[in-house]
Automatic annotation (TrEMBL):
This is Proteophosphoglycan 5. It comes from Rhodotorula toruloides. Residues 529-554 have a biased composition (Basic and acidic residues). Residues 320-341, 526-563 are annotated as: Disordered. The chain crosses the membrane at residues 41-64, 85-105, 125-141, 162-184, 249-272, 411-434, 454-473. Keywords: Membrane, Transmembrane, Transmembrane helix.
Length: 563
């Protein structure tokens, strides 16, 4: 930015008063029409974000209490090579949304006083500097939670240690220490602006006094009279701008790191989708096989129920399943292995029903077969709500797949919101770090630089919290309630003990079968078992991102089937 210069003074005017008015408009730019209305809209968005964040946190607390679990923010995940720090993604997202919206309230109030009421101008950059800190912390925590889950799930799937726990934990904690120089620069920039404002106000008072005492001085005489004070103001303003540029250069670097971490977190989304596709094909094949066997048995005039021994053929080639490549880590939804690593035979009690009116289509076409193997959300809900004995073996898998579908959509929302906002913030930070002069040339560009990111953040956070809340209510509300009908929840009520509103970072889901076996898996464990450690108090340390693993379901006839 060019150094501050005295303006050209036209002939016939009081040079002192002309220069004073120039400095007044330089330090007090007038907002464009409609700025007050835009502030009111921002007030509403901030209030809505605070209310939704509190409501979502309360919803999570109620859900944890119903499942008799402790609410948590960070936990350690055990692996063979150490323990990883993993955050509760949804709880931290809601918590920092609440904090950021509260800080934005102060930011908005500061602009109201400075721009509209023309007061407290010396403190203007205190809030303008502070507001970015919770936004950056929010982006870092959410981004690292996704990356950490991706690393842990990939380690189990590939049997390779991508990142040692010491390094991963150090990088996670180091991200917070990177903010220390940013905070120091922000505070010092705000202090530099206060000093600049003070000397500027002193110069303006001097100009007013000289303008009243010496109105007939020439331009050259006026410039000579105020040269020392004007140079002091120019020096202070130049120093402030350099600090301002340095702070935004660090902002740009931080946003590059956040974007890179989220690109790494995309691996979690791809891994999760592969698991959903694999298990969806497997479950579809099992349902189709059991239905065909039940139909054949009913056509042969069998009794009301028969025991059908099922072998365990490979439903899908091992290359199509991420976790089935290794014999030591079967898929969580695959049949359990016995001691000699061979799948045990399954004995399912099938209920015979007459489906003569349903005609099976020819599945000779490979395209048709693939289409039938893909199960929609509606089909998964139907399988999860099937209370017949014939559907007992597939009910648990369908519930798990529905939970994974919820996690998948939550993850898409997080990644999209964080990457878009980080990219915009990166472009804005580079603009302010490289060439801040055009930014302060007009109020329009100033408003863009100061309010573009808050606008995007508030809209994105409010939309995300709304989606997460509705997505959670759809899983825990009774289908007979009026609110459930409003948000489009149909069908049977989902067991609240088996459904978590925590999504990517839920605790383990409790088993409701005859034999209760505690199991942990997540997006850290949607693909694998997580080692548990018994605490002295009798509680288990759960994985930060957990889903239900396999369990043995006992049928009324005494036979068992792995689900």
């Amino acid at each position: 930015m060019a150094r501050l210069q005295l303006p050209p003074v036209p002939e016939g005017v009081n040079p002192y008063l002309y220069i004073e008015r120039y400095l007044h408009y330089l330090f007090n730019p007038l907002p464009t029409p409609g700025f007050a209305v835009r502030l009111d809209v921002l007030w509403a968005l901030m209030g809505y974000g605070i209310v939704m964040a509190i409501f979502y946190l309360c919803l999570m607390a109620v859900e944890y209490r119903r499942r008799e679990k402790r609410f948590w923010l960070w936990r350690l995940v055990s692996r063979s090579n150490g323990r990883y720090i993993v955050g509760n993604q949804h709880a931290l997202f809601a918590l920092f949304s609440l904090v950021s919206c509260a800080v934005l309230l102060g930011y908005n109030n500061s602009f109201l006083r400075v721009a509209l009421l023309q007061t407290y101008q010396d403190r203007a950059f205190f809030w303008r500097s502070l507001v970015w800190i919770p936004l950056i912390v929010h982006a870092w925590i959410s981004s690292w939670s996704n990356l950490q889950a991706s690393i842990l799930s990939s380690q189990k799937a590939t049997k390779m240690h991508i990142l040692a726990p010491t390094i991963a934990n150090a990088l996670y904690i180091a991200g917070f220490f990177v903010l220390v120089p940013v905070i120091v620069l922000d505070v010092y920039s705000a202090y530099a602006w206060t000093r600049t404002w003070d000397v500027g106000m002193t110069l303006r008072r001097t100009l007013i006094s000289l303008g009243q005492a010496r109105p007939n001085d020439s331009v050259q005489a006026a410039e000579a009279a105020i040269a020392a004070q004007f140079n002091t103001v120019a020096d202070r303003l130049q120093f402030f701008i350099h600090m301002f540029q340095a702070a935004h250069a660090l902002y740009a670097f931080t946003m590059l790191v956040v974007i890179g971490v989220n690109i790494g977190g995309l691996g979690l989304l791809f891994t999760l989708r592969r698991q959903i596709e694999f298990n969806s094909r497997r479950l579809s094949s099992q349902i189709r096989t059991s239905s065909q066997q039940a139909h054949n048995s009913s056509s042969a005039g069998a009794g009301s129920s028969i025991g059908i021994p099922l072998a365990s053929p490979a439903l899908v080639p091992s290359s199509s399943a991420l976790l089935s490549e290794s014999p030591h880590s079967p898929h969580p939804l695959s049949p359990c292995m016995n001691g000699d690593r061979t799948p045990p035979k399954q004995m399912l009690l099938r209920h015979v029903f007459f489906a003569g009116h349903t005609k099976e289509k020819d599945n000779s076409s490979e395209t048709t077969l693939r289409g039938r193997n893909h199960m929609s959300v509606g089909e998964l809900k139907e399988a999860a709500e099937n209370t017949t004995q014939a559907g007992a073996a597939n009910r648990q898998q369908a519930k798990q797949l529905l939970a994974l579908k919820k996690v998948e959509w939550d993850l898409v929302v997080f990644l999209a919101a964080i990457v878009v906002m980080a990219t915009v913030f990166l472009a804005l930070a580079l603009w302010l770090a490289i060439s801040p002069s055009p930014v302060y040339s007009s109020w329009q560009t100033m408003e863009v630089s100061f309010y573009l990111v808050p606008w995007m953040y508030l809209v994105g956070v409010d939309a995300s919290l709304t989606f997460l809340t509705l997505n959670s209510l759809r899983h825990i509300l009774s289908s007979s309630s009026r609110l459930a009908s409003v948000i489009g929840l149909h069908g049977r009520q989902v067991d609240p003990r088996r459904v978590s509103v925590s999504g990517l970072t839920s605790d383990e889901l409790e088993s409701d079968s005859f034999s209760r076996r505690a199991a942990t898996a997540g997006v850290v464990g949607t693909m694998s078992r997580v080692h548990e450690e018994e605490e002295r108090a009798g509680e288990r340390e759960h994985v930060a991102v957990e889903m239900e693993d396999r369990e043995r379901v006992e049928t009324p006839s005494g036979t068992t089937a792995s689900v």
